Amino acid sequence: MAVLRFKLRGVPEDEADEVRERLATHDFDTYETQEGFWRLGEPAIWLRDPEQFTAARRVIDAYQAERAELLHREREAQRARGEADTLGRRLARRPLPLLLLLAGAGAILALSLLPFLGLGR
């Protein structure tokens, strides 16, 4: 019976490709499922042989640790160069979504408090 090894929902395509490559390099017998037209399925990489689960887990865990370290180093390099994407930069680049969010939150707050503010009269 096949066993789920790696879920692909929300995974960047480059990471999914690298996981596929690592599993193929280590000769794991895998297949993939897609989420389908209605997005009801689980996009994932499955192992056909459940006895390979532990070995595949070690391979994927090692890859993810390498990837996390690489992304951390890239982020630190961007921060050192002053190019890191900060909240202030994102707000300066796109202020309209923040303003709409604040207006919506204010409207909900006003509608929620309106009955209580009228009780004091």
What does this structure look like?
By secondary structure, this protein is mainly α. It has a domain of 81 residues: 2-Layer Sandwich (Alpha-Beta Plaits), CATH 3.30.70.1530. It is built from four helices and three strands; from the N terminus they run βαββααα. A three-stranded antiparallel sheet has the order 1-3-2, covered by helices on one side. The N and C termini lie far apart (69 Å). The model has no long low-confidence stretch (mean pLDDT 92).
Brief summary:
With 121 residues, the protein is mainly α. It has helices at residues 13-25, 53-81, 87-93, 95-117, and strands at 3-7, 30-33, 44-47.
Topology:
Layout: E1 3-7, H1 13-25, E2 30-33, E3 44-47, H2 53-81, H3 87-93, H4 95-117
Antiparallel strand pairs: 1-3, 2-3
Shape descriptor reads: flat
Which structural class fits the helix and strand makeup? mainly alpha
* Poorly predicted segments: none
Major sheet characteristics: 3 strands, antiparallel
Work out the radius of gyration: 23 Å
Intertermini distance: 69 Å
Describe the strand arrangement of the main beta sheet, using strand numbers: 1-3-2
Q: Taking all residues together, what is the mean pLDDT?
A: 92
The CATH class of the domain at 3-83 is identified as Alpha Beta
**Which topology of the domain at 3-83 does CATH recognise?**
Alpha-Beta Plaits
DSSP summary, beta strand count: 3
What's the number of helices?
Answer: 4
Encode the helix/strand succession as letters: EHEEHHH
Oligomer: single chain
Helix fraction by DSSP (H/I, runs of at least 4): 55-70%
> Hey, roughly how much beta strand do the residues contain?
5-15%
The CATH architecture of the domain at 3-83 comes to: 2-Layer Sandwich
The name of the CATH superfamily of the domain at 3-83 reads Hypothetical protein rpa1041
Organism: Halomonas salifodinae
Keywords: Membrane, Transmembrane, Transmembrane helix
Protein name: DUF6164 family protein
Transmembrane segments: 98-119
